[in-house]
Design goal:
There is one protein chain. The protein is 49% helix and 3% strand. It has five helices and two strands; from the N terminus they run ααβαααβ. It has helices at residues 2-8, 11-40, 69-73, 80-93, 110-116; strands at 62-63, 120-121. The radius of gyration is 25 Å and the shape is rod-shaped.
Length: 129
């Protein structure tokens, strides 16, 4: 390739082509990182301290007795409607005594509880084992 470039315009073209190749590599790397973050949620601050695939730590658990609708909405399987129900139930009935008590909220059954159990805590903010 060097010989071809030298015949057609010298080292200046070689430097331009090299710069373009490095720019293409950088763009490909940036696109790959963007896709990873988009697909895994790795850019979410709630998961910033976690390695991919690691369970949420107790310090990062969502306290269901103080969490806002927005925080609850981020839990797997909980959308804005269920998040609003959790907050309304908590305001009407007082704090949850244990994480399992969230199943008393209409629409949260065993399957949904199974999805959110690793990420929620009760009075003490501890994650459910």
């Amino acid at each position: 390739m060097k010989t071809f470039l030298n015949q057609r315009g010298g080292e200046k073209r070689e430097k331009v082509v090299t710069a373009l190749l490095w720019a293409a590599v950088a763009a490909l790397l940036a696109a790959t990182v963007f896709a990873y973050v988009r697909d895994t949620g790795a850019g979410d601050p709630a998961f910033a301290a976690l390695e991919p695939g690691a369970p949420m730590t107790r310090a990062a658990a969502v306290d269901i007795n103080t969490a806002s609708v927005e925080e609850l909405d981020d839990l797997p399987g909980i959308g804005p409607t269920l998040a609003e129900r959790i907050v309304a139930y908590r305001e009407e009935n007082g704090p949850f005594k244990s994480p399992e008590d969230v199943t008393d909220v209409p629409g949260i059954g065993p399957a949904t509880y199974g999805d959110i159990a690793p990420y929620i805590g009760g009075e003490t903010g501890e994650a459910d084992p």
